[in-house]
Amino acid sequence: MSERVFNDDTVPMLAQGYRFQWEPAQNCNVLLYPEGMIKLNGGAGEILKLISEKQQTVAEHITELKAAFNGADLADDVYRFLDEAYDHDWLRK
Amino acid sequence: MTGSENKTADRAVGSVGSAIGHVRDQIRQPLWLLAELTYSCPLQCPYCSNPMDFAKVKNELTTEEWINVFKQAREMGATQLGLSGGEPLTRPDLVELIKAARDLGFYTNLITSGVGMDAAKVAEFKAAGLDHIQVSFQASSEDLNNLIAGTDAFKHKIEMAKAVKANDYPMVLCFVTHRQNIDQVDEILDLCIELEADYVELATTQYYGWAMHNRDQLMPMKDQLVRAEATAHRYQEEQKGNMKIYYVVPDYYEERPKACMNGWGNIFLTITPDGTALPCHAARQLPDMALPNVKEFTIDEIWNGSDDFNKFRGFDWMTEPCRSCDEKEKDFGGCRCQAYMLTGDATNTDPVCSKSPHHHLITEAIDAGRAEAAKPVVEQKPLVFRNPKNSKKISAR
Fold this sequence. Notes:
A: alpha+beta, Arc Repressor Mutant, subunit A, B: 397 residues, alpha/beta, 39% helix
């Protein structure tokens, strides 16, 4: 795989014009952007919720997610998702 | 207004009672609300998709009525709100409407010509929670020349663009192209670069409303499109990572129709300035429409129960060649309004489709445009501009 976009010290932010919210009608978390909507699955929703609420480093996000999910080792999953999300233009650094 | 309208409204009541309940589980609920706040507009674009008889429309919905519409659509699950018109900036309550919509959780899109917009207004919109501004440029070749030549209008556009960016909005520009300006795609894109646009949409005129009336004068020629597309692609390469350019191919030059509105009554809901609910902004012209109004019915009743919104749902209404076509789930048979305008029957296949027995109507329209373009300038039909005077004159015929 190519080099990662994010490292422990980067602070990921939602890209310009993107908004995270819970949609009761869809029963899931979504990302809203100009004239469109992305429905997020469970894991993606948790990560983006945290990013939309807190400006903190990836390492801090991972620590918090670990605590919320019983200490599971999810660092690789988080990084994989962040790269994917950046690739889709959902995130900026 | 007239007796016939009252009669059709009665029919909508009956259908609401009968259809609701047993079919609503199969109906997708609206995701997109297009709020045409007003037909007032300082511009007179001859390619406007507003109805020709817009001057007849009185009684715009009040602030409270619009907010009630937003509430209902939001409860049904709509997430995207387009604030459009006419020119939405002419509504004095725009900031209030934006704030109400945003507080309800809508992603709010303002679709404006930018005329009447200044830095203070953009800042007000930002504070009210507006998510996105799309500026449509009225680029007739003359306007464009003036802009490029550096008039006051151009300075205003630059200032407005700066204000948009200063408030952390992406700069989203939309140009409607047609025969009389499509040869200037490179000038248009240079202007976009100068305005530091993030996204540019080059959309060819679609023939509804005023544009249909002016079709012979607006229809681009094939060689123009080939050049424009090549230019757009060149700029796409050069501007990679900087400015995203979307080039929309006009459907008259396609072999298959567009998946209009993503299917009738599927995700889109338009509310016109007077509160009429439509499955798309051009549908008012279709025959036998009940035209239910939000002043009389709830949006739930209209979306799920009205004849209008159920008319072309699913595939049962289709005629051949759509009915047995294996692509019908991809394009839903194209556009109902286009089928009606061109063939006289809204259940026909959109004539853009090369499988349609009416496809010759499209090629003939292109030929008519070419013939018009070939005439000496003095003999060419003048463009009819979208203004109240022309609206009254044409709809009185």
